[in-house]
Amino acid sequence: MTFSPALEQRFEKLLKSYPAGRTRSAVVPMLLYAQDEIGYVSQELIEEVARRCGVTPLQVDEVIGYYSMLHRKPLGKFHVQVCTNICCQVVGGEDLYAHASHSLGLGNKQTTPDGLISLEEVECMGACSWAPAIQINYDFHHRVTPERFEQLMQAMRDGSYNKKAS
Amino acid sequence: MIFNEPSPLETKVISQRWTLPNPESVETYLANDGYVAIKKALEMTPEAIIDELKTSSLRGRGGAGFPTGMKWSFVPRNSGKPAYIICNSDESEPGTCKDRLLMENDPHQLIEGMLIAGWTVKSNKGYVFIRGEYRYLIDIVDRAIAEAYERGYLGKNILGSGWDFDLYTHTGAGAYECGEESALLESLEGKRGIPRLKPPFPAVVGAFQSPTILNNCETFSAVPVILRNGGAWYASLGTPKNGGTRLLCVSGHVNKPGVYELPLGFPLQRLLDEVCGGMRNGKKMKALIPGGSSSPVLTAAECEGLLLDYDSIAKAKSMAGSGGIVVLDEDTDIVAVALRTIKFYAHESCGWCIPCREGTTWLKKILTRFHEGYGKESDIPLIAELADNMFGRTFCALGDAAAMPTTGFITKFRGEFEEYLKKAPRDIATSVPELVGIH
Ligand SMILES: Cc1cc2nc3c(=O)[nH]c(=O)nc-3n(C[C@H](O)[C@H](O)[C@H](O)COP(=O)(O)O)c2cc1C
Ligand code: SF4
Ligand code: FES
User: Fold this and answer.
1) Going along B279-412, which residue ranges are E strands?
2) How many domains does chain A have?
3) Do A33 and A85 share a structural domain?
4) Is the CB of B192 less than 8 angstroms away from the CB of A66?
5) Residue A71 falls within a domain, yes or no?
6) What are phi and psi of B267, to 5 degrees?
7) Which CATH number fits the domain that encloses residue A131?
8) Per-residue pLDDT at B325
9) Are residues A44 and A95 in the same domain?
10) Which residues lie with the beta carbon below 6 Å from any ligand 2 atom?
11) Is A28 in contact with B332 (Cβ distance < 8 A)?
12) pLDDT of B167-206, one tens digit each?
């Protein structure tokens, strides 16, 4: 498989960061960083990671189901994750999720037919004091109201979504 | 970035640089007491460093509150194996959002703390284990690590000491259980995060089967200032056996939720009224979760006069835990919070042992039914019994972490559960309607 030069560099550094004979340690980071680039964990990626880390494809495969951020299928271009855990729940997180669900017409872990947006109800993301919080891909958005959510969705749809907006 | 206004009542010790311009840069760090402690440490013996930590009464900020100096002293220094330094930045306990700020705003302080640990046990390698959702922080910490290499604080022959230390970031990929120290070590080795049998503890057999210092991100971040100003100074900020300050993450129904650094033993009431600006909308407090979602809930009455340190909160039969304080007002639906809590633990149970895997699943099923208005009177003792049966019988502490809050909710707010029985199913608005048939 071919990856971007930046990712290749990251892989090289990763494989060197563990003690001798311990390249299996790189499996999870490698899968996550590669997924960031290619969108999901494909069979081809599993075999590639196995080869690079010196383990069997089965050893790679068996960790994937364990980690909730590793996906075997592509997500939307914008993966919207709404936290409904307690700190978010008590200040409107569940309502926000319900709003998102209706507004997008998506259930949990579903993707719009055009592949633009996917939705997921997630556990605490470390934004409890600035709840309710969502993550769009890796970007945090704090104290999100339904109105703010609509603006963000509009921006995702018309291409003006700005990573830094929080 | 800081996400809430600091409070004038804070004692800024480990968060002192957060409000400076470019707080994450090495220049800012060096201009503000940075890398002074490691210079001091390099002149000290391991025993002297550990003694300083013991004097400081620093206790682990990850959850269990174990004395840090004692933990470091358990690491054998002549095992013939290399030792490792691991920072637990998996931060996934609901209610907790402080390690994020420490890494975002002062990564060099963390690096220096890990360096001091490395020197103490003559380790040559360390890893910062960061949860995958904190992807942007990995870049920030990686940048800080690169800066530290450039300045000679990491790498070969650090500050002419003849000692080498390498530091790396390592990412998780979404699993609360990987915050449990032995599951974290499995994950670091490229496996599923299934915990290990203890003992041996990580101090003796940890990362890569070698002696390991494993601490929370905030614990390591407190080490440089302790060496700089002295253990006695740090201890004096807090209360006996509860030294220093800690970051309290306040969420829920207060006017100014946020992360605030306060001395151990700070009165809860002052935190709520003065630091957090009182209850939102003038409501009354119904309950409070003092140390992350695993800690048993306290009623408003139990909160009266409470001081925020490990021992005082333990005396109130809860836990200071990870410092995540969730404030619940009089309108809060306790049954809904209990359900959401157990949903979390059921989702995060690694499935390795039966009491936790089955216990959390059944509690979730019963509480879901209950919350939807189909509860039976017999469910109340059943929930209590299930939780009670899990407690102390699971392979790792996640089982207890699920049982304790459930027991707390059902015993202290039994009346609310009983009220639920009177409601007809249609009277209860389930907040997230199931969507069917979309794709
Ligand atoms: C299920 C579970 C999850 C945990 N999650 C975390 C975590 O996210 N961060 C953390 O520092 N400690 C966590 N801990 C506690 C760690 O096992 C360990 O005690 C801690 O990292 C030790 O560091 P300290 O002594 O500095 O607190 C967790 C424990 C359990 C049982
Ligand atoms: S208590 Fe839960 S998380 Fe811990 S080993 Fe058992 S099943 Fe896994
Ligand atoms: S509970 Fe939602 S971010 Fe912590």
Assistant:
1) 285-289, 298-299, 307-308, 324-329
2) 2
3) no
4) yes
5) no
6) -70, 130
7) 3.40.30.10
8) 98
9) no
10) B 177, 195, 349-353, 356-357, 394-396, 398-399
11) no
12) 999 999 999 999 999 999 999 999 999 999 999 999 999 9
